[in-house]
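WARN no homologs supplied; continuing
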Amino acid sequence: MVSSLFIVGGARSGKSRFAVDRIPSRERIVFVATAEARDQDMAARIARHRAERPSHWATVEEPLDLVPRLEKLEGTCDGIVVDCLTLWVANRLLRGEPDDAILGESDALARLIGRRRSSFTVVSNEVGAGVHPETATGMRFRDLLGGVNQRVAAACDTVVLMVAGVPLTVKTPSATRER
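OK structure emitted
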């Protein structure tokens, strides 16, 4: 069955590990990475995440043009893992894109997930429950990512909130059908 899962949580909450561990090893998976190794810490994180994934998974790096890339991948594999929307939004902000363009792309992502031919697992950070950002840029990022997360969560069958490595299911397919 073609399904969709949105995994959201704080930094180091176990989101990526949960995304990888829940997928049967026999499936043909394309892992779409949005991170760019801009410093040593990020390079080490990318290497750690890569080592945690099954070696037969295909990896595609797409830090900016996520939706067009996913449209090309759709139907060519059993499932697609996108890790993560947080960096995708940050990359687009750093490129100077306006909020409405980013939200428009998140709407396009939600539509793609809704009509999917491959299963989707999408990872993002929950940044609205933390410390209030000190800068206007930080507030803009928090608010924008919150809007993106809401759109994707609405499109997915299942939503899981990761807390200290523990998955808490907050939306299930049966809850979706009852509405």
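Residues 136-155 form the longest helix (20 residues).
OK
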